[in-house]
Design brief:
Helix 8 runs antiparallel to helix 9, helix 9 runs antiparallel to helix 10 and helix 10 packs parallel to helix 12. The radius of gyration is 25 Å and the shape is elongated. The longest helix is centred in the last third of the chain and has 25 residues. It is 64% helix and 2% strand.
Length: 401
């Protein structure tokens, strides 16, 4: 199996470090500026020795450490000796961990730490397409872009459904600033792997750099839908928001009551006494609905599963029950049907229920390991609804030019 990470950092937003702390040595500032200028032009091999000297002079400059580690990873992909390449990646990972310890919050750093194998080893199979992929990676690292495209194209000749090859051809055109061709290949990769996040995210980054914020927003959202439980996709969406000076909405309902069941008749109810009577009734209904699922209801709905798990069906049923109780309480008080609660938690519940978005909310913003098992089947039939939920409730609109 091929694991390739040579371009994980190339399609991130431009790496712009914060202003350095005042240095007595003016030459340090000048060299630091030069290193990041090279870095942001994707000249990683040229930037590598500059970063290395800067790190010797100031090993506590965490953004320099991130830059150095990234350039080392790029260089490792050009090294033919597998052991030497792995050792360089291990050293790069150590630098990234040191940068994090020193206070770096770089999205690039987080993505690399998530991606680089702990032992630094990238596994290449002996098949012709995997060897061509490796040759393409090395050519890309040397900035021999025609050769990289030739090798990636060879992979596609041997394996027309190879997602990574199509993606990396897009990367190569992007690095050459041929954005039209890059878009063509990102689209092709998306067609080959609609449930893989990388092409959506890279495409979003490119569109952001070009200033097409509306389409970049769409692609960032689709990256999350492809892999919602992968932190990289949410970091990409947050990056789009930051560039546009926006904030993602925090969508999570912290339920104040809990009901647990042991055996068939023993219920334990925990209630927050600070809440209103209305809220208490609503969330008690939620807890009772969940307790029913931990008994016979789960077995009836999921007869093929041997052990109970928290499911999408359970959570959406419990939230629907809570919303229904709120509606009934309002009807008993003869309030207009359009009335919305003043309690922020209840307001979120009612808005999600009225819009038919409880299930997308549960899957994307309230999932645990049990609920996550239901995601793929739901996405297969409801991809547009998941996108609508994120677009309506979580991601602000793109700024109008």
């Amino acid at each position: 199996m091929l694991i390739s990470i040579s371009t994980i950092f190339l399609l991130g937003l431009a790496f712009v470090p914060p202003a350095p702390s005042p240095q007595d040595d003016a030459s340090y500032k000048a060299e630091r500026r030069r290193a990041f200028e090279l870095f942001n032009k994707d000249l990683h091999l040229q930037a590598l020795p500059v970063f290395a000297e800067l790190a010797k002079k100031n090993p506590r400059d965490h953004e320099v450490l991130v830059g150095l580690a990234t350039c080392m990873i790029s260089h490792a992909n050009t090294v033919e000796d597998d052991q030497a390449a792995a050792a360089e990646r291990v050293r790069a990972r150590e630098l990234l961990l040191k940068a994090k310890e020193l206070g770096s919050t770089s999205m690039l750093m987080e993505n690399l730490l998530q991606t680089i194998p702990v032992d630094g080893v990238l596994i290449y199979a002996s098949t012709p397409q995997d060897q061509a992929m490796r040759a393409g990676e090395a050519a890309f690292g040397r900035r021999d872009f025609p050769e990289a495209i030739r090798q990636y194209s060879k992979v596609l000749e041997l394996d027309p459904k190879n997602y990574s090859a199509a993606l990396f051809i897009g990367d190569t055109y992007f690095t050459e600033k041929d954005f039209a061709q890059a878009a063509v290949w990102y689209e092709r990769a998306i067609q080959l792997g609609p449930n893989r996040e990388t092409a959506y995210r890279y495409y979003s980054d490119m569109l952001t750099r070009q200033g097409d914020m509306a389409k970049a927003r769409t692609m960032a959202i689709r990256a999350v839908i492809a892999e919602p439980y992968n932190p990289i996709t949410w970091r990409g969406l947050q990056a789009w928001a930051r560039v546009n000076q926006l904030q993602l909405a925090r969508m999570h309902m912290d339920i104040p009551n809990s009901v647990t069941q042991s055996g068939e008749k023993n219920l334990t109810i925990n209630v927050d006494p600070a809440q209103s009577k209305e809220a208490m009734g609503v969330w008690l209904s939620y807890g009772l609905a969940r307790a029913a699922w931990s008994g016979e209801k789960f077995k009836k709905v999921f007869p093929q599963e041997r052990e109970y798990r928290h499911s999408l069906a359970e959570e959406s049923d419990a939230l629907t029950s809570a919303a229904t109780v709120w509606k009934e309480l309002n009807e008993a008080d003869k309030k207009p049907a359009s009335t919305l609660p003043g309690d922020p938690l209840l307001l979120t519940l009612v808005k999600l229920h009225r819009s038919g978005m409880l299930e997308p909310y549960v899957l994307l913003n309230a999932a645990d390991a049990g609920i996550a098992q239901d995601y793929e089947a739901y996405r297969e039939k409801n991809r547009a609804k998941l996108e609508e939920y994120l677009s309506t409730f979580v991601v602000p609109p793109a700024p109008v030019k």
